[in-house]
Amino acid sequence: MNPVFLKAAPVLEKIETAGYEAYFVGGSVRDYLLGKDISDVDIATSATPMEIKGIFPRTADVGIEHGTVIVLYDGDSYEVTTFRSESDYEDFRRPSKVDFIRSLDEDLKRRDFRMNSMAMSKDGRIIDPFGGQEDIRSKRIATVGNPLERFYEDALRMMRAVRFASQLSFQIDGETYEALVSEAYLLEKIAVERKLAEFEKLLAGENSFMALKIMADTGLSQHLPGLAGKKQELISFAGRLDSGLLSEERWALLSAGLGHDFKTAESFLRSWKMPVKKIRQIGKILYWLQYRSVQNWTLESVYKAGAEAARNAERVLAATGDDSADEEVPVRLYASLPIRSTKELDVTGNDLIQWFNKPGGPWVKELLGQVENSIISGHLANKKEEIRGWLECNQS
Ligand code: ATP
Ligand code: MG
After folding, report:
1. CA distances from 140 to 36, 115, 136, 146, 170 (A)
2. Which element (helix H / strand E) includes 57?
3. Burial of 261 (0-12, 13-18, 19+ CB in 10 A)
4. Which tens digit of pLDDT belongs to each residue from 156-201?
């Protein structure tokens, strides 16, 4: 068995010894059967959260109202969730009420897709009541039960279907696909943060091209922030998306593909409720992308942009099909810079005040800026005495 499961097996054993059932469930079982790497294993159990807390000395409550306890064991942490059924879905979102139950089958039934509704015992026995293994064999994504009902219960599952298509290169089963088309409008009810999390995974998937096409073809993208009426733009963005791009670069590419510049992109990105820091980084990439569409990198511009943003912009430019793009160019220029920031200047404002024997004022900053520019462009060495000499010749 996979070493990740072997390491976690004692957790199941302890729960079983205490008289309850426990299984590996969800994505880890699916990925194991797919022969993919397993990151984190989720555990489902018949024990209640309080019972789990009674078994393990080290636990953390994160989602206890949903039945989840984090168990810390042998240097790792595991999400242990009580078997549950979900009822009374409100507004097509998460269930408003969670009932803890003692039956594994009922727990598997509330899961989204057949490939995600399998369990595995500690000795590797697969429990697969809905044909998950068959779906994995035929590379198929299908809901557990009627897709119309399942999407009505929780519309986010529609985005999950498409992001799994992107990550696994699976096909969405006919009925499930049809339900994406007819129920797409339900996405309006879903919190943007949840949509963003799934969309990020979709963009990072190996088959993002197909997935974005599905988003556009089914009409799901009509109900995503800033993408209504942008089907063509989305499809051409899909064709440019390169799996090697970083998340910020993908969003810069998408923003540019939608016709945003670094100023108008901000409200688009804010409508996704993205973290402010990330919005700023994407804005910076767009700014330098625009710069690159009119001129090449210079020592001055890589100094201003910084190696990171310059490289990001160059990679986005390459994705847009611009043959002149070469991320090594700004990297090389940056490496040859005599200084990387104002802090590295061999003079300070105080030096200037002393040398000129004048009270401080805006002139200090202005002059330091001139010194900085001359150093960056290679006209002046970053040495105190030389800077002084240069100032005396130029400022008298
Ligand atoms: P990943 O590798 O991306 O973590 P995953 O399948 O583990 O994939 P999670 O979001 O971690 O996905 O969810 C864990 C499991 O919980 C899923 O495999 C599925 O069984 C169930 N699940 C998650 N979200 C839903 C949902 N919206 N509706 C029903 N079941 C869900
Ligand atoms: Mg998971």
Report:
1. 16, 8, 6, 15, 5
2. none
3. middle
4. 999 999 999 999 999 999 999 999 999 999 999 999 999 999 999 9
363 contacts 379 by C-beta, under 8 angstroms = no
Q: Do 55 and 72 form a contact (C-beta atoms < 8 A)?
A: no
88 pLDDT more than 60: no
- As residues whose CB is below 5 A from the ion ligand 2, the structure lists 27
CA 234 to chain centre: 18
Q: What is the C-alpha to C-alpha distance for residues 332 and 364, in angstroms, rounded to an integer? A: 31
pTM (2 decimals)?
A: 0.91
Question: Residue 113: how many CB atoms within 10 A of its CB?
Answer: 25
CATH number of 343-395: 1.10.246.80
- The bridge status of strand 68-73 relative to strand 76-82 is antiparallel
Taking the centre of ligand 2 as the mean of its atom positions, its distance from the CA of residue 72, in whole angstroms, is: 17
pLDDT of the residue at 92: 59
Q: Is the CB of 145 under 6 A from ligand 1?
A: no
pLDDT digits (tens, 9 = 90+) for 341-353: 999 999 999 999 9
Report whether residue 157 contacts ligand 1, using a CB cutoff of 6 Å. Answer: yes
Nearest to 352 by CA among 341, 342, 361, 343: 361
Nearest CA to ligand 1 atom 7: 27
Give yes or no for a contact between 201 and 166, defined as CB atoms under 8 angstroms apart.
Answer: yes
CATH number of 139-239: 1.10.110.30
Kind and range of the H or E run holding 188: none
pLDDT tens, 118-149? 999 999 999 999 999 999 999 999 999 999 99
| Architecture of the domain whose range is 1-132 | 2-Layer Sandwich (3.30)
**What residue type is 5 in one-letter code?**
F
82 Cβ closer than 6 Å to some ligand 1 atom: no
Binding site feature residues for ATP: 27, 30, 111, 154, 157, 160, 163
Residues annotated within the binding site are 27, 30, 40, 42, 111, 154, 157, 160, 163
Q: Which residue among 111, 120, 170, 202 is best mutated to probe the pocket of ligand 1, counting the most ligand atoms within 8 A of its Cβ? A: 111
CATH 1.20.58.560 fits 241-337, yes or no: yes
Token pair of 15, please? 């729960």
116 lines ligand 1 (CB under 6 A): yes
